[in-house]
Design brief:
There is one protein chain. This protein has 534 residues and is of the alpha+beta class. The chain has 4 domains: 97 residues, RNA polymerase II/Efflux pump adaptor protein, barrel-sandwich hybrid domain (OB fold (Dihydrolipoamide Acetyltransferase, E2P)); 111 residues, OB fold (Dihydrolipoamide Acetyltransferase, E2P), CATH 2.40.50; 53 residues, E3-binding domain (Dihydrolipoamide Transferase, Irregular), CATH 4.10.320; 216 residues, Chloramphenicol acetyltransferase-like domain (Chloramphenicol Acetyltransferase, 2-Layer Sandwich). 26% of the residues lie in helices and 28% in strands.
């Protein structure tokens, strides 16, 4: 039976590839492990080996041609086999996949298309959308096991979203019959999470008919029958285990067939060659660049570095993916510019010392900056604005987003109506929100609706920095550390304390003069904190 070979993903960032050279022609016999072609990726030109045996019946991308990952590259099968259906069906299948959302097909669609109806009383529970930006979720913990009784309102699982780890309640009662996503696995929103129904109900047909998703597998892969996807990691590991020789000391040597062929022609001992491929695999370029003098020969001194490359791959969490998406969009769509100001902090330091002498009172500099910023924003609504594709919104309320560092990245809980709250109220609320952020217990409502954001790295000794705007907000304030330094007071050199602020603005909504006027107002309140109590 003919096998469709697709353009493989040969690097983590590869989106398309160019066929540099075909090493097999239509009609040639192909054995497992043979080099089919050399493919140019975004990083290098790499050899692509076959995992199938047969005859090369069709070439879909000619030398010099470029195509997207998963495009039809070649077809291998039995000599004389009719493959016209696979060739003619390639374009239509590609179009169909392009129009399908990258979410797993719903249970109802699977049941209707497969002719399978759900058994009576059986409910399919799908991956919920627990935040407005959530596209996929990871099951952190299952609190129910297969066979357990589930009541409406029971916590089924803890699910990690792009913003927090949240409890997911069941809205049905019954027995947990099937778990579709194991702990630690990730799936798209609407993917099969679990099946609940009467005890003893057979749900194997529901699962077998394609409801259960594979880990992080887009639907186009599940629907593609005639053209199974090539997975580069598996390819390289498979090659590594199938193309081995033995070195002089009994160790295994990993080498591609083409590399072995060239080495044999040049009389090169593979045990002397250091491979640059996956798992130390020797590839064509290693043979071509091999220098016997450097590798070591009789009477030839060796100057070979003995260091060993080492790295660790860490899967991106849902939060880290969300940060990459949102900040990348902000940085490359909003025209950022930055304004800097240095403040005299003597009055604020004295004010804080006196204020904290009140019973049960302990406010931080950050609390005072939030309060001062919120008051200044009321004077400059243009800075408290938001940009949308079809409009600009001037907010008359002030909701301050406070950036909080957590192990997985960064979250921004919101202090609502900050200008109307006292310093003690802001202090208590920020502490509560920061604690919930570190415990991943923030709700979506506690992280949405900000009109302006403050990021403070002063506690880490950072004196000044620039931040990326938290869209759709128009600006973000970066707060540095208070430093002791020589300053000029009344024409005399003296020791003082200063702090630097950097305001990042979206030039679509905030002009330079507007941003500068806001900083002047903010400077007045910070350098004269008693005005905040008026």
């Amino acid at each position: 039976m003919a096998e469709v070979i697709n353009m493989p993903r040969l690097s983590d960032t590869m989106e398309e590839g160019t066929v540099a050279t075909w090493l097999k022609n239509v009609g040639d016999a192909v054995s497992e492990g043979d080099i089919l072609a050399e493919i140019e990726t975004d990083k290098a030109t790499m050899e692509f080996e076959s995992f199938n045996e047969g005859v090369l019946l069709y070439i879909g991308i000619q030398e010099g041609g470029t195509a997207k990952v998963d495009s039809l590259l070649a077809i291998i099968g039995e000599e004389g086999e009719d493959i016209s259906g696979l060739i003619s069906g390639d374009t239509s299948s590609t179009k169909e996949e392009a129009s399908v959302p990258t979410e797993t097909v719903s249970t109802e669609e699977v049941a209707s298309t497969s002719g399978t109806s759900l058994p009576e009383g059986v409910i399919v529970v799908t991956m919920p959308r627990l935040s407005d930006t959530m596209e996929e979720g990871t099951v952190a913990t299952w609190l129910k096991g297969i066979g357990d009784q589930v009541e409406e309102g029971d916590i089924l699982a803890e699910i990690e979203t792009d913003k927090a780890t949240m409890e997911f309640e069941s809205f049905q009662s019954g027995t947990l019959l099937h778990i579709g996503i194991q702990e630690g696995e990730t799936a798209k929103v609407d993917a099969l999470l679990a099946i609940i129904g009467p005890a003893g109900t057979d749900v194997s047909n529901v699962v077998a008919n394609g409801v259960a998703p594979k880990k992080e597998t887009p639907v186009k892969e599940e629907k593609k029958v005639e053209a199974p996807k090539v997975t580069p990691v598996v390819e390289e590991k498979k090659v590594a285990t199938s193309t081995t020789n033995t070195s002089s000391n009994g160790g295994r040597i990993f080498a591609s067939p083409l590399a072995k062929k060239i080495a044999q022609e040049k009389g090169i001992n593979l045990s002397q060659v250091k491979g640059s491929g996956e798992n130390g695999r020797i590839v064509k370029s290693d043979i071509e660049n091999f220098n016997p003098a450097v590798a070591g020969g009789a009477g030839v001194p060796q100057f070979v570095a003995t260091g060993e490359e080492s790295f660790e791959d860490i899967d991106n969490s849902q939060m880290r993916k969300a940060i990459a998406r949102s900040l990348g969009k902000s940085k490359f769509t909003a025209p950022h510019y930055y304004l800097n100001v240095e403040l005299n902090m003597e009055n604020m330091m004295n004010f804080r010392g006196q204020f904290n002498q009140l019973p049960d009172t302990k406010v931080s500099y950050n609390d005072m900056i939030i309060k001062a910023t919120s008051i200044a924003l009321k004077h400059h609504p243009q800075v408290n604005s938001q940009w949308f594709d079809d409009k600009m919104r001037l907010n008359h309320h002030v909701h301050i987003g406070v950036a909080v560092a957590v192990p997985d990245g960064l979250v921004v809980p919101v202090v609502n109506f900050a200008n109307e709250k006292s310093l003690q109220q802001i202090n208590a609320e920020v502490k509560q929100l920061a604690g919930k952020a570190r415990d991943k217990k923030l709700t979506p409502g506690e992280m949405s609706g900000s009109t302006f954001t403050i990021s403070n790295l002063g506690m880490f000794g950072i004196t000044d920095f620039t931040s990326i705007i938290n869209q759709p907000n128009s600006a973000i304030l970066s707060v540095g550390a208070i430093v002791e330094k020589p300053v000029v007071k009344n024409g005399q050199l003296a020791v003082g304390h200063t702090m630097k602020l950097t305001l990042a603005c979206d030039h679509r909504t905030v002009d330079g003069a507007t941003g500068a006027q806001f900083l002047q107002t903010l400077k007045t309140y910070i350098e004269n904190p008693v005005l905040m109590l008026a």
